[in-house]
Amino acid sequence: MALKILRWAWCPGHMAHTDAAIPIAPAPQVEDRGADDSQHEAVPMSPLTDSKAREAICRLGASIFSRGLTFGSSGNISQRVEDGWLMTPTNASLGDLDPARLSKIGFDGALISGDAPTKESFLHRVMYDERPDAGAVVHLHSTHAVAVSCLADIDPQDVLPPITAYYVMRVGRLPLIPYFPPGDLGLAEAVRPLVGRHHAVLLANHGPVVAGTSLSAASGAIEELEETARLFLLLQGHRTRPLTAEQVADLRARVG
Would residue 2 count as lying in a domain? Predict the structure, then answer.
């Protein structure tokens, strides 16, 4: 039975079906050594097999959904495998993913099998393109991070202060990406210049996107980001004592 193969081209303002695939060279998956700002040397490791990766994505999706970190059909997950990427399908709830229906995309941009991928697949592709060590990408519409992304007076160069050591080590600096409508391919070009230096970004009025050397690294970092956003909102109106510049530098040196 012939496989259904679709390809997407990047066209201003929308995702268009085309016969021209988008070439992106494969890169090895790497072992996680902590997160932040491309300051860590990657240690290659073998990518997960297709079946194990499918199970891991569905398990993570169910966990995220059951803990209220995403709602409805919002949020998406992807993971690098030996011959491309697995992504959650469009309009799919992370709480009810079917391993057999996950979208499998080849390194040439073709949909090899499964349902059509998330309409934000281009965002995942940019993260993999600009971060050769990325083994997985997680994007959520988590409540507290989205709330912070809507605040008027946050620093677009580094949205959240260094409240805890684990935020510094797992997330680091968090730039804000200007607002784009859902599915707008202009978002990819807004993200591209930043993600080579930052493995986590916050989309204005939308939510966080985090790349990690593994699925557990990406999910751990995005959960740390969400918890820090919650703490940041809880501390509004209170005198706070974030980590000092010297303490932050020491933490970065420890994980670097």
Answer: no
The residue to which tokens 């799919």 are assigned: 92
Q: How far apart are CA 29 and CA 213, in angstroms?
A: 6
The string of pLDDT tens digits covering residues 220-230 is: 999 999 999 99
* pLDDT < 50 positions in the chain: 1-36, 38-45
What's the pLDDT score for residue 167? 98
The type of residue at 142 is S
Give catalytic status of residue 167 as yes or no: no
Q: Where are the alpha helices (DSSP H) in 13-140?
A: 50-66, 121-130
Q: How far apart are CA 56 and CA 99, in angstroms?
A: 9
Q: Which residue has the tokens 């992370």?
A: 94
Q: Is pTM beyond 0.70 here?
A: yes
Q: Residue 139 is part of a domain; what is its CATH number?
A: 3.40.225.10
